[in-house]
Amino acid sequence: MKRLICGALLGLFLVTTAQAAIDTYEFRDEVERERYRTLTEELRCPKCQNQNIADSNAPIAMDLRQEIFRMLEEGQSNDQIVDYLVDRYGDFVRYKPPVNAKTMLLWYGPVGLLVLGFGVLTVILVRRRRVEKAPASTLSETERERLAQLLDKKDS
Amino acid sequence: MKRLLMLLPLVIFLVVAVFLYRGLFLDPSELPSALIGKPLPAFSLPSVEDEQRVITAEDLKGKPALVNVWATWCVACKVEHPVLNRLAAQGVVIHGVNYKDDNAAALKWLNEFHDPYQLNIRDERGSLGLDLGVYGAPETFLIDKQGIIRHKFVGVIDDRVWREQLAALYQELVDE
């Protein structure tokens, strides 16, 4: 009897989880499921801009998920799918923007700034070292003699 | 030289400041359309009024026009509707794309609130909307007489938007 009740309760639990999923897709294999996951995570929802297509509940994100699933079923490559969406929504939908003239600064700006920072640091360090070394050589012969005289005087 | 170097931080600061200041007034929800300068995507869909009547992209050529993506579930579209009615009365050519909507509800809406659209495309599954890169109604495209998309406006067209942004663009297309 106890087992029966447990079984029934477990069964109920299964029913609720099945209903809780918003969209359920049947993938052919694990590879396709994985591709679907990466694609929906790398593509940005055009409506709710700080969410990817996988996370968003906006109707447009739902449509796009369905569209991505359809294209995967048709056997299209990841690039084809991304291009399809970029053609319609622009580079905006990519969380990973392509490297081109417009995004040059975005991709290489940080590296450029880092190099610039190191450059400035090197210049400052080299200059400081030069200043530290300098006093020894700036005294002329007569000045050095005079200094020695003064120091001698102090000692005696 | 040294003096110039000393000015460098100030220059960098000014450049960054100008950048950030401009950023304050940009609307991040306004996406540039990927379709500007491209022809309307090909489609073949029935009209809202008559299921037998098939509308294609060819039918929208000939005159510059506004292509307004709307739906009865879209609250903002209701605000926009009287403005479109007024523009249509002034002789502005407006076509509608009824986007992912219940057709009966759309017909009722047009009967109740007046129909400003010359052609009204029934896009129940949202396929044309997807090809147009629509991400939320209302959206309005300006097309020229060759059917090339020249401008896109996302949001409600009110009198001010029309006066300050769209009227001049439309006039330009008419004069072409």
Structural commentary:
With 156 residues, chain A is mostly helical. Chain A folds into two domains: 2-93, Cytochrome C biogenesis protein (Helicase, Ruva Protein, domain 3); 104-155, no CATH class. In chain A, 70% of the residues lie in helices and 0% in strands. Chain A contains six helices and no strands. Chain A has helices at residues 2-20, 30-42, 59-73, 78-89, 104-138, 141-155. In chain A, helix 2 packs antiparallel against helix 3 (59-73). The longest helix of chain A has 35 residues, at 104-138. The relative contact order of chain A is 0.06. The model of chain A is unreliable at 16-21 (pLDDT under 50). Chain B is α/β, with parallel strands linked by helices and 176 residues long. Chain B has one domain (34-175): 3-Layer(aba) Sandwich (Glutaredoxin), CATH 3.40.30.10. Chain B has helices at residues 2-24, 75-89, 103-113, 127-131, 159-175; strands at residues 44-46, 54-56, 65-70, 94-99, 120-123, 139-143, 149-154. In chain B, strand 6 (139-143) and strand 7 (149-154) form a beta hairpin. Chain B is elongated. Chain B starts with a helix and ends with a helix. The model of chain B has no long low-confidence stretch (mean pLDDT 90). Chains A and B meet through helix 3 and helix 4 of A and loops of B. Chain B: Belongs to the thioredoxin family. DsbE subfamily. Chain B: It is a single-pass membrane protein.
Q: Helices, strands, pairings?
A:
The complex is a heterodimer of chains A (156) and B (176).
Chain A (H helix, E strand, L loop, with lengths): L1 H19 L9 H13 L16 H15 L4 H12 L14 H35 L2 H15 L1
Chain B lengths: L1 H23 L19 E3 L7 E3 L8 E6 L4 H15 L4 E6 L3 H11 L6 E4 L3 H5 L7 E5 L5 E6 L4 H17 L1
Parallel strand pairs in B: 3-4, 4-5
Antiparallel strand pairs in B: 1-2, 3-6, 6-7
